[in-house]
Design goal:
The chain has 261 residues and is mainly α. It contains eleven helices and no strands. The two termini are 31 Å apart. This is ABC transporter.
Length: 261
Amino acid sequence: MSLTSLTSLDVTGFYALLRREVLRFVRRPRNTFVPPFITNVLYFSVFGVILGERIDEIAGVPYILFILPGLIVLGAVSNAFENASFSIFHGRWNRYIEEALTSPLSYSSMVGAYVLSSATRGVLVGALVALIGAFFTSVGVARPFYLVAFMLVITLLFAGLGVVGGLWADDFDDLTMMNQFILRPLVFFGGVFYSLNEIPETFQQASLLNPMVYMVNGVRYGFLGVTEVDPNLSLGVLTALTLGVVGLNVVLFRRGYGLTD
């Protein structure tokens, strides 16, 4: 078979797998979009409206507007991670992932389809949260390039981490543990509901070890033009980390980690 034919098969297979994974969550809106919709309406109602009226401006912006980028990050990364980890683990559990493994797809195309489809879900949920926020406050975009760049990088990063989680997990409880007890606490302590300048110096330094701080501030810079960390450095480090995680995904697929008995 010629190189051109192999390339054509790879592109066709990549598109088919990507389409299958996207349709998997698009066809189930009650599972994909309704939960984050209800959760974020509650977040904005309680933290933004009820508590926000009692809190002074933070970084020169109303509190409800200050928490908006963090809630977008929370929704986007949680869904990107959950989609990838569940898709990989469910495929292993029911053994239909073997269809992809025995196809003429390259490992990079397989990983690319899983990661890109999961990142798409994360971006869609992030957009949904932004739309909900627009009903509660005026939402603008101060730095469009940084907003788009950070949203793409963080959703791709957590989609890649979700692939690792899906390969590592032994049962569905492991998936729940990773999302609820590792991912969400990191986001909540990543400056979603508070400014780093409002906490003691010791906790500020400790917070800088949390990668979520840089993600939340990056998206906040895109929306509001306000940040507590260097956005260029954050974007560069997160991009390098994303490339490293996706590269790890390819290596794990090639070695059959979690895929073969």
